Amino acid sequence: MVSVSKWNLIQSLCSVLAVVAVPTVFASPDERQISLFISKCVQCHAQPHTGAPQVGVPEDWESVIDQGEDATLVNVVHGIRGMPPLGYCSACDEKDLRVLTRFAAGFPDPEEGKN
Ligand code: HEC
Questions:
Q1: Which of 25, 53, 86, 111 could form a disulfide with 60 if both were Cys (CB 3.0 to 4.6 A apart)?
Q2: CA of 19 relative to ligand 1 center, distance in Å
Q3: Does residue 27 form part of some domain?
């Protein structure tokens, strides 16, 4: 009996970890950046009716990735159509926005490569 409930616990831990682990394939925001992401960006980027490209839906970000990271970052800072300037994140500095843009869109190779 005890082993059954342990197994249930392990199963639920695994499903929590799976959800948390998926986005870290693309970039590695720190805890502060993740909480900014959750309190700001996710309001739209996990709400399909807003028209924002959705986190975890790679097709939504294809054209964004095609235009390149620097052009995208300019749009994030200045806003574009339904995307408000800074994504409403007045507490985000440039580095935060860069990390969160990578994280949301799935730009490859966060800190590596050319600068
Ligand atoms: C009020 C809703 C809203 C919030 C908050 C928001 N976004 Fe957006 N975002 C949008 C919408 C809508 C678009 C699509 C704009 C378009 O292309 O028409 C978008 C587009 C983008 C794009 C693609 C820009 C491009 O060049 O096409 C990125 C990257 C992005 N958002 C990142 C973020 C990040 C990072 C945050 C948090 C700091 C954030 N967004 C917060 C609504 C939002």
A1: 53
A2: 22
A3: yes
